[in-house]
């Protein structure tokens, strides 16, 4: 199956590459891998996100479900550091830090950001590491 060195790839629409790059690189601290006239490729926490210039981006993201993506952090301190970074850089918070499934094995913290093209990014930390997958 997947080797630990393999990289997950996700392509999403972007309405403007400059504002998209500012959000992901300057805001979230992702590494810009490549930039072309019609897309940017990012190292998104070790995986690859490609933001394609498109007029089909979401004008209204509606609800978080079913379409969103993000990272589940194994370490709580990494989750907390990203929350602080998002706050310090004034990123668009769609849903602030919340607690889900309290008292159950799948209990976790979550928060959601919205990028400039209204793509929703959810970040999580499970208290029980068995829930990572």
What features would you highlight for this structure?
133 residues; alpha/beta; 2,3-Dihydroxybiphenyl 1,2-Dioxygenase, domain 1; four-stranded mixed sheet; Glyoxalase; Glyas_Bleomycin-R_OHBP_Dase; VOC_core; Glyas_Fos-R_dOase_dom
At a glance:
It comes from Acidiferrimicrobium australe. The protein is an alpha/beta fold and 133 residues long. The chain has helices at residues 17-27, 76-88, and strands at 9-14, 31-35, 39-44, 47-53, 69-73, 93-100, 108-114, 120-126.
Describe the structure.
InterPro entries: Glyas_Bleomycin-R_OHBP_Dase, Glyas_Fos-R_dOase_dom, VOC_core. Residues 6-126 form the VOC domain. It comes from Acidiferrimicrobium australe. By secondary structure, the chain is α/β, with parallel strands linked by helices. 18% of the residues lie in helices and 38% in strands. The chain has two helices and eight strands. The strands form two sheets. It has a four-stranded mixed β-sheet, covered by helices on one side. It has a four-stranded mixed β-sheet with strand order 5-8-7-6, covered by helices on one side. It is globular.
Question: What's the layout of helices and strands?
Answer:
Elements (H helix, E strand, L loop, with lengths): L8 E6 L2 H11 L3 E5 L3 E6 L2 E7 L15 E5 L2 H13 L4 E8 L7 E7 L5 E7 L7
Q: Biggest β-sheet: count, sense, barrel?
A: 4 strands, mixed
Kindly provide the radius of gyration, computed on alpha-carbon positions and rounded to a whole number of angstroms.
Answer: 15 Å
Specify the CATH class: Alpha Beta
Question: What's the count of strands?
Answer: 8
Strand order of the largest sheet: 1-4-3-2
Mean pLDDT: 94
CATH architecture: Roll
Order of helices and strands: EHEEEEHEEE
CATH fold topology: 2,3-Dihydroxybiphenyl 1,2-Dioxygenase, domain 1
* Number of distinct helices: 2
């Amino acid at each position: 199956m997947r080797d630990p060195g393999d990289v997950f790839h996700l392509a999403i629409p972007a309405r403007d590459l400059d504002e998209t790059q500012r959000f992901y690189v300057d805001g979230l601290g992702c590494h810009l891998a490549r930039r072309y006239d019609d897309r940017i490729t990012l190292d998104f926490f070790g995986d690859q996100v490609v933001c394609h210039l498109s007029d089909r981006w979401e004008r209204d993201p509606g609800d978080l479900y079913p379409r969103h993506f993000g990272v589940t952090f194994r370490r709580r301190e990494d989750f907390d550091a990203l929350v602080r970074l998002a706050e310090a850089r004034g990123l668009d918070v769609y849903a602030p830090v919340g607690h889900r499934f309290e008292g159950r094995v799948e209990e976790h913290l979550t928060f959601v950001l919205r990028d400039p093209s209204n793509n929703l990014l959810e970040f999580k930390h499970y208290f029980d590491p068995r829930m990572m997958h």
